[in-house]
Amino acid sequence: MSNVRLHDKTFRPFIEYDKIEEAIDRVAARINEDYQGSKDAPVLLCVLNGSILFTAELMKRLTFKCEIVCIKLTSYVGIKSTGEVRDVIGMTGSVEGKRVIIVEDIVDSGRTIENLVRIMEANGATETKICTMLMKPGCYKLDKKLDYVAMEIPDDFIVGFGLDYDGLGRNIKDIYVLDSDMKYYILFGPPGAGKGTQAAGMAERFNLCHISTGDLLRGEMAKGSELGLKAKALIEAGELVPDEIVEGMIENKFDTVKDVSGFLLDGFPRTIAQAEALDRMLAKKGESVSGVVSLMIPDEMIKERIKHRAAIEGRADDASDETISNRIKTYHDKTEPLVDYYKKAGAYNEIDGTGTIDEVRDRIALLMERI
Ligand code: IMP
Ligand code: MG
Q: How far is the CA of 42 from the centre of ligand 1 (A)?
């Protein structure tokens, strides 16, 4: 199964047809058990258009006498619930004096079924139960418990098996989930490779939030946030800021920064443990690292560049050969293992970091456009 494109959005495979069928088998078996031997012919209320496929699949599994009535309501425009449910067409039959099973494709906030239950009562139904193929527990706002739920899913927007994105996708037999367009880039490389120099320009060019862990720490300390105070205490005690603090700051950025097309991480992750933590944070959001851009420069050039920078910034300590050699060693020991980590993930890309700032910038931009 590969991604599908509908209008302006991309969707990735989420639930395979076989799994959907199995879930429908299970829910149909429960309904059969509850309604077996009943004297009346309960009404299945098919909620158009989304519920067409599910109702058909469910109905052919039901072994008791039943009728079908269709209704059309809508509360969705594009990929967002408007909060307002409109009755688009009336019902195709009567529910007067009958038991009704509302058959929905998906229950999100629950506003639609709340309205449907009211409409059923107003039309003289003697009992109303709810059966839905999918439900998003994270979005559901009602106290009312749903009677039959075939599958529960996270709060993401999905299409397929009757569900649409602005009219398209209903005919796809598997279920697909909206693939986020957010990008998570890592700018990677030894000290002096030019990460900081290039990151700001790239962030602007691609509308990314540039996350430099050093800047973040200073920012949190200046704000006097809880995190900042913790970090400050540690730094003042001459200790290293532990991974959890740095990770907490980054996760906080991911969760709070809006209106960007993605994030550009600079100076993080530095260790395998941090890379694993980053994967966990992104997985929680249904995301993953989009690509690593690794700036390659030879050790000799690292030394030259750091010395040059130290001279400009007047930091004589950084100019000592021994300190620089140490930083290079730490990089090779601790950070370089990440190359293999990201190669395995299929996310690793190398860029020649030598040459002028503009030359390197153009190489990075070209690569990032492809990722
Ligand atoms: P509710 O009224 O918020 O429960 O929304 C229910 C209706 O919104 C469903 O009948 C669908 O038409 C639509 N809907 C909710 N979530 C999705 C989705 O992920 N994909 C497509 N349509 C959805
Ligand atoms: Mg619907």
A: 25
Spell out where 171-309 has E strands: 175-178, 183-188, 208-212, 262-266, 291-296
> How far is the centre of ligand 2, averaged over its atoms, from the C-alpha of 55 (Å)?
12
Residue 58 CA to residue 36 CA, distance in Å, equals 15
Distance from the CA of 48 to the center of ligand 2, in angstroms? Answer: 6
4-179 and 183-370 in the same fold: yes
Tens-digit pLDDT string for the chain (371 aa):
788 999 878 899 999 999 999 999 999 999 999 999 999 999 999 999 999 999 999 999 999 999 999 998 765 545 555 556 555 567 899 999 999 999 999 999 998 899 899 999 999 999 999 999 999 999 999 999 999 999 999 988 999 999 999 999 999 999 999 987 789 999 999 888 889 889 999 999 999 999 998 888 888 889 888 888 888 888 777 677 888 888 988 998 998 998 899 999 998 998 899 999 999 999 888 788 999 999 999 988 888 888 887 777 765 556 678 877 877 888 888 888 999 999 999 999 999 999 999 999 999 999 999 88
Q: Which residue has the tokens 């697909």?
A: 176
- Ligand 1: residue of 76, 132, 152 to mutate (most ligand atoms within 8 A of CB) is 76
The CATH label, of 3.20.20.70, 3.90.550.10, 1.25.40.10, 3.40.50.2020, for the domain at 4-179 is 3.40.50.2020
pTM above 0.90, yes or no: no
CA of 243 to the centre of ligand 2 (A): 45
Q: Where are the domains of the chain?
A: 4-179, 183-370
Give the position, in ligand 1's atom list, of the atom nearest the Cα of 136.
Answer: 16
Judge whether 292 and 348 are in contact, CB under 8 Å. Answer: yes
Domain 183-370: which topology? Rossmann fold (3.40.50)
Ligand nearest to the CA of 155: 1
Protein residue with least CA distance to atom 10, ligand 1 = 106
Mutate which of 73, 75, 118 for ligand 1? The one with the most ligand atoms within 8 Å of its CB, which is 75
Cβ-count burial 299-330 (b if 16+ within 10 Å, e if not): eeebbebbbebbeeeeeeebbeeeebeebbee
